[in-house]
Amino acid sequence: MTSPDDALFSGLAAIVMGVATYLGAERRGRAIKKRMADGGDAYFEEQRTYRAYPRLSNPRWYRGGGVFLVVGGILIVLLGWYGRR
What does the pLDDT look like over 68-80, one tens digit per residue? Predict the structure, then answer.
């Protein structure tokens, strides 16, 4: 069983990672599109993946993951706080 302090730390870590993912989504999408436009062989497998799954180069996909992490982190913190009572 985890302690409430572990839940607090884990929840805060998830919130921080979620905010970072949300804020970095545009930059990541631009970097992926730039690599695709360059078309070098160094990223052949990566480019094949992005062509097969275009949502992976869409910033909305990463922003959604960031929101999911923030909401999950808040729930973990709240459950840890509730378990402390």
Answer: 999 999 999 998 8
* First-last CA distance in the chain: 16
Residue numbers of the chain with a pLDDT score lower than 70: 1-4, 40-43, 84-85
Place of tokens 């985890």: 2
Q: What is the pTM for the complete model shown? A: 0.77
d(CA 71, CA 76): 9
- Domains of the chain, by residue range, sit at 4-84
